[in-house]
Structure formats: C-alpha cells, structure tokens
Amino acid sequence: MYTVSVIGFDSALASAITGIIDLFRLAGVTWARIQGDSPQSFFQTRLLTRDGGPCRCINGLTLLADGSWNSPETAQSDLIVVPTIGGPIVPVLEQNPELVTWLSHQNKEGLQLASNCTGAFLLGEAGLLNGREATTHWGFSNQFRTRFPSVICRPEKLITVDGPIACAGGGMAWWDLGVYLVERYAGPEVARQLAKSFVIDAGRTSQAPYSALQAKRYHDDAAITKLQDWLDGNYAARVTLERMADEAGLTCRSLMRRFKAATGDSPTTYLQLLRVEEARRRLESSTATIETITREVGYEDVSSFSRLVRRHTGLSPSDYRARFR
Prior knowledge:
Blueprint: E1 2-7, H1 14-26, H2 30-35, E2 43-49, E3 55-56, E4 62-63, E5 67-68, E6 79-82, H3 89-95, H4 97-104, E7 112-116, H5 120-125, E8 133-134, H6 141-147, E9 152-153, E10 159-162, E11 165-168, H7 174-186, H8 188-197, H9 222-234, H10 241-248, H11 252-263, H12 267-285, H13 290-296, H14 302-313, H15 317-324
Parallel strand pairs: 1-2, 1-6, 2-5, 6-7, 7-11, 8-9
Antiparallel strand pairs: 3-4, 10-11
C-alpha cells in the first residue's frame, strides 16, 4: 500500500485534486467490481494543507483536508502531488511561501514528486526543477521559461519524467499523470485496467495539438511585437529573414538574438508556426481541401507542408481535421 499526499491550497483547481485522488483510490478497485472480482487497493491518499484546515478551490468548492503537510504525523509519503494553480499564478506563489520552502526540502531519496499543469510553478519556485526537464500548460510556458530559466521546459510534451519528478501538461492532464503514476507503482496491468474503467485514452503523449501561438507573445520586446503584428497579415507571402529584420528595424543578427530571447524560437520557425496555426484554424472551420489550405497559408508542396503540420501537432492535416472540426 503506497501513501500519496496531494497538496491543497487556496485557488487550486478542484478537479485536479479530487480527480487524481479518485484514480489512486480506485486503482485495482473499479475494474475488479466490473469483473465481479475482489477489489485490491494499492494506494491510500490524503489531502494535506498548510495547517490542516480546508482549502477553497478556484471554482468556489471548499475541500476538507486530512492533515497538515508540515506535521510530523504526515511526514511519510511515497508520492507528493501538486495540483493545478487555478488562480493567477504569481499571487498564488506569493501567498504560499511556507509551501514553497517545505517543497524545497522534499527532494529525499525514494520520495517521488509530481505536478499537474501550472502546479509545476510551485516545484519550480522551490528549485526542484533546476536542470531538469519539465512541462506545464502550453499557454503559460513562456512565463514558466522566463521565471525559471534553469529548467528545461518541454511544453509540447504531455508528461515529462526526470529522475524522481514527473510533470503533466494542460489542466485535465491529471488523467494521464494519474494513469502513468499508477503504472509506475502498481504495474502496467493495473494501469490499463484503470484506463479502461474510467474510459481514458491512455495513449496521449503530446499537448501540441491544443497549443496556440498566442503563448509566443508573452514578452515585452516592442520590436519583436511589431514584427509579429506584421507577420500576422503577411504570413502567406514570401518572407525572407532580411525582410523581417527591416520590419523590426533591426539587423539580421540582432533579430535572430532578440527573437529567440523573446519567443524561444527563431524568426523562420515562428513563421512556420504561424502558418501552421492558420492552417489549423482553416482545417477546423472550413471545408476547403488540404491542397487549397496549403496554398492559402504560403506553401506550394502539399507533402512537405503535411509533414510540417505533423511535426508541430503530432497529427496529419486530415487527422487534425477529423479530430477538431
């Protein structure tokens, strides 16, 4: 029997707390009931808060805690799970200095830690992710990179595992995180049964199909913002690096350096992403052929563009349309 401690704090996402507790508590149980077998529990769970009092989640629900994370009686855990920050991230970090300090001391041998979505900001604030690979919600990835430059941020990944720390991506990725952690502790067969019982698609590995280019605008470089605005209306044209530098009022060398610092991408990669983003919108909302959409976003060769879409979204254009239209 493994002990899982889920951390509660005000403005957390309630479903990321109650949902992952459900998965752990019902691993080995629900499937057995479906099959008419005797249930076998693998996990005991507890919700821990700073003083053992209730936490008020972002949706207004108040959850009763099982104890305090700072109490000797609850010190022994096999796994600590930090749920999604549902409210404004920076205020929540500033309101929880004791939790950040406590987390910073939890990097003990044999102890595993996990975060869901923006919960990774609490692990990052505690210094637990420095030099490690981590993921978070794609929409906050640039903010994460800016705040934690020593962390290897992989926003395209749904789950990252680096040493004893696992991180999951966007809000409902606790499904995937829970199934992964159940497999890690209880084995692949129990995890498969859990996924079947809860009708969870356990094969997801990427949150790239859901991401938006807007995240790349989380910066304060006015010259780069000016260029991004220009590219919004000219992405389908033949755009050279020299033309982009002229529009930004920079030399090519300065453009490359500043664009990378502001967005995490080179200007040409960003242009590719912009074209893919527009193609995605058209695949979702129009009946135009893939060949037509390819030309409308600035490409001529359908095959190469299809490979580009697959590289950035994990799906071919036809598969993307089938899923999201």
